[in-house]
Amino acid sequence: MKTSIAPLAALCLALAAIPASAQQWSYDNGPINGTTDAWAINFGYIVSDTFVAGSSCSFCAFLSFSFGVWEFPGDTLTSVQWSITSGENSGTVYGSGIASGRLYLSDQYISANQYGYNIDLVTVAFQDYPDLTSGTTYWLNLQNASVASGDPVYWDENSGVGCRSSNCPSSASESALGTIPSEAFTIGNQFPEPSIILMFGSSALCLLGMRRRKGRNRA
Hints:
Elements: H1 6-17, E1 25-28, E2 37-40, E3 47-52, E4 63-71, E5 77-87, E6 90-100, E7 105-112, E8 118-125, E9 137-147, E10 154-157, E11 172-174, E12 178-179, E13 185-189, H2 194-218
Antiparallel strand pairs: 1-13, 2-10, 3-9, 3-11, 4-8, 4-10, 4-13, 5-6, 5-9, 7-8, 11-12
């Protein structure tokens, strides 16, 4: 049985031709500070920040968020529980999950601060796209962050300094204290570069080619 690769090649080229600007939105509450303060997102504490959703996405699998953390030296985040809600860790739940594994969670070391903590950038890719409405304010809630050592993990406070969205800075709260200054994070639908799409397409074509060769060898 022959497998035609022409439709797949056409699809990859069509995806690469889509303007990235038409597929992207992001809410950016500003860069990591790393020197002022941070708030625990494990040991029962929940930290919540608001964001305003942008335009709906056509390729929702690429929705993600990133945030700054303070960790003890040697620690690397292995999982974190997240939710997106209509209220301050309450109300309607539009999406939730536990991010773990290399496909859905990355932890990148940036620097060490004056208090002896490592400052890292954590990125979470959503497995399922939350059903968000453009222009609506939501809450991003983080909790149950886990590292192998069992140490505390803290979400970096930046008070929205340097935020790059029209509706920033975020409002923020901590489950035990209530209102706090907001944290460093970015959330949005980041459509991959055309080169990445073509790379994926090339890999898929190679796999199909290998399958065809194996079929011939069996014959």
